[in-house]
Design goal:
The protein has about 150 residues and is mainly α. The protein folds into two domains: about 5-90, Hypothetical Protein Yqey, Chain: A, domain1 (Orthogonal Bundle); about 100-150, Arc Repressor Mutant, subunit A (Orthogonal Bundle). The protein contains seven helices and no strands. It is globular.
Length: about 150
């Protein structure tokens, strides 16, 4: 069963169990996937890797919205966004721990021969395929920048 089929199956189950948070979140995710499928000149079916990219983007939106609501003092809305983000995260591959991420970054720096911040693009080029859907790009970027500034 592909990721999209799993999402549709879980949506049906969430509707049956009247879980409004899960069903609403999965509906939004499926809508984002469908929008991605019909974007461009002709419709296509997304692969699981492309769906993971869409899920990562949606999870990031929820994290950023939760922070914005929390900063504005809207704790109720921040909690809702955080809960939606947790539902989406359940469909993403296991995220890298800080230690695993550090090891990947050290390896990429060594492979690229990077000597300073100006070589960040080389390091990120090596890391991008390895971290796709498994780590937040902003977090990785900050960690690479810190590693190159040592």
């Amino acid at each position: 069963m592909g990721l999209k089929e799993k999402l549709q199956s879980d949506l049906t189950e969430a509707i049956r169990s009247r879980n409004e948070l899960v069903s609403g979140t999965i509906r939004m995710v499926l809508t984002a996937i469908t929008n991605e499928e019909v974007a461009g000149k002709e419709a296509r079916t997304l692969s699981d890797d492309e769906i993971i990219t869409v899920l990562s983007r949606e999870a990031k939106k929820r994290r950023e919205a939760a922070e914005a609501f929390a900063d504005a003092g809207r704790v109720d809305k921040a909690e809702l966004e955080k809960s939606e983000g947790e539902v989406i995260t359940a469909y993403l591959p296991k995220q890298f721990s800080d230690e695993e991420l550090s090891a990947l970054i050290e390896d990429a720096v060594a492979k690229s021969g990077a000597s300073g911040p100006q070589d960040m693009g080389k390091v990120m080029g090596i890391l991008k395929p390895q971290i796709a859907g498994k780590a937040d790009g902003g977090k990785v970027s900050a960690a690479v920048k810190a590693a190159l500034n040592k």
